[in-house]
Design goal:
By secondary structure, this protein is an alpha/beta fold. The chain has 16 helices and 17 strands. α5 packs parallel to α6. The structure holds iron/sulfur cluster (SF4). Iron/sulfur cluster binds next to α2. It comes from Acididesulfobacillus acetoxydans. Keywords: 4Fe-4S, Cobalt, Iron, Iron-sulfur, Metal-binding, Methyltransferase, Transferase. This is CO dehydrogenase/acetyl-CoA synthase delta subunit, TIM barrel.
Length: about 450
């Protein structure tokens, strides 16, 4: 959270000596506020002022990194439309150390395969949580090693038993797993292990008051790489806790709760579990640990996540270049649409379903749909004519017929005049493309 120049100025020595390279302390403060300087340039800043500025300028929710590129926290708003959410909820599927090694490998490979391509995005499950349920530290360490050897995904090592974490964590520390749980009875030993291996650790307590106490005691150990678990496993309580933690961190800047939060699902039936996890993705889990491990269940959850963590001010777009669908040839039809991903992929899916190899040229409309782009003057005949020319499609087909969306039939005459292509008005909705394309090819 950035400080204003005046807030920074209050903490400066006010000598106006110019040794920092700016003539006055106020000018230096303004430069710092604009991100154009370093506090160390002033040799007279007191330690107290340095701490105050560092603390006040820290993000309301600390960024915690672990595993293979997983980033938790570092959010600045309560509602995505206020700005955006930055770091999508990390989704981890759990495995138990009670499985034998063969079953464990099969399960890990199944989780590795939970990846999807949709509307030009590639996304998947981010990690695997290895649960210590065997009661045997040696078995836990072995299971963690087997999982680590068979996946590139981020790891969470989860046990209430310090000995199990001590047995398992050092061998996989290079993969920077998240550790858990540090709780009231064991937090000193677990935080010490996390600190020694430079790993983030989950602080788990039963309720927000107990969590507050635990965070303050753990921070006093000189470590701050924490993820919080408020303990509840009932959906209503978990949602209330997640909401309170986010509100206190963002609105009140309450530092003990300025850490990312992990949620655990309680439902066993996969449909119910995904519905529960969807609530936590929406508000406000930084990470979720769940049991469901089949594509049909994970895809809706990950799609919801992709929607929520898309910057609302930057629509998802595709490259506004010529795309081909199927084994195109000089007879292939040429469609134009917009570069808004949902529009483009709706068209592409229907063109593919028509089984007629075709070209699609998405026009750069800043990621807006056909009617929005037309209303905003971004889907004009001149622009489409230029795109046709610059795409080189004329060199790939032996005709000059272009199909435009039915919603902008009104531009057909002018587009024909500007481009020299014969304009064919297509269906209004992409759902009409299959029958349209077949009637075109038959007739
Ligand atoms: Fe002020 Fe420090 Fe710069 Fe001197 S060096 S002008 S005291 S900010």
């Amino acid at each position: 959270m950035g400080l204003t120049g005046l807030e920074i100025y209050k903490q400066l020595p006010k000598k106006n000596c110019g040794e920092c390279g700016t003539p006055t302390c106020l000018a230096f403060a303004m430069a710092l506020a604009a991100g154009k300087g370093a506090l160390d340039s002033c040799p007279y800043v007191s330690d107290a002022a340095r701490d105050a500025l560092a603390s006040a300028s820290a993000p309301p929710i600390k960024s915690i990194k672990f595993g293979n590129g997983s980033v938790l926290g570092d959010e600045t708003v309560l509602f995505r439309h206020d700005k955006t959410f930055y770091h999508p909820t990390t989704v981890l599927v759990q495995v138990s150390d009670t499985l034998n090694d063969t079953d464990l490998v099969a399960k890990v490979e199944q989780i590795n395969d939970l990846e999807f391509d949709r509307v030009g995005l590639h996304y998947g499950v981010d990690g695997i949580a290895v649960l210590e349920e065997s009661g045997d530290p040696t078995r836990f360490a072995q299971a963690v090693k087997v999982v680590a050897d068979h996946t590139e995904k981020s790891l969470l090592l989860l046990s209430d038993n310090v000995a199990a974490l001590q047995a398992a964590a050092p061998a996989v520390a290079a993969k920077k797993p998240l550790l858990g749980n540090a709780a009231e009875g064991n937090y000193e030993a677990v935080v010490a292990l996390a600190k020694e291996l430079a790993l983030p650790v989950i602080l788990k307590a039963n309720g927000l008051d107990a969590l507050n106490d635990l965070v303050e005691k753990a921070q006093a150990l000189g470590y701050k790489e924490f993820v919080l678990d408020p303990g509840s496993r009932k959906p209503v309580e978990t949602l209330a806790n997640l909401t309170q933690l986010r509100r206190l961190a963002i609105k009140k800047k309450y530092r003990p709760f300025g850490y990312p939060v992990v949620a655990f699902t309680s439902k066993n039936e996969p449909m119910d579990e995904i519905a529960e996890a969807s609530i936590y993705v929406t508000k406000y889990a930084s990470a979720i640990v769940l049991k469901a491990d089949e594509k049909g269940f994970l895809l809706p959850l990950l799609t919801l996540r992709a929607n929520i963590y898309t910057d609302p001010q930057k629509p998802i777009q595709v490259e506004p270049t010529l795309h081909s669908v199927g084994d195109v040839n000089p007879e292939s039809p040429v469609y134009v649409t917009t570069n808004f991903s949902l529009t483009y992929y709706s068209v592409e899916g229907e063109v593919e379903a028509s089984k007629i190899p075709s070209y699609i040229l998405p026009i750069d409309t800043d990621g807006t749909s056909v009617l929005t782009a037309y209303a905003a003057g971004k889907y004009e005949p001149e622009k489409i004519a230029d795109a046709l020319l610059n795409s080189g499609v004329a060199d790939k087909v032996g005709h000059k017929n272009v199909i435009i969306p039915g919603y902008v039939a009104v531009i057909s005459g002018k587009l024909q005049e500007k481009s020299g292509w014969k304009v064919i008005v297509g269906p209004r909705e992409s759902s009409g493309i299959v029958s349209f394309a077949r009637s075109l090819s038959n007739g």
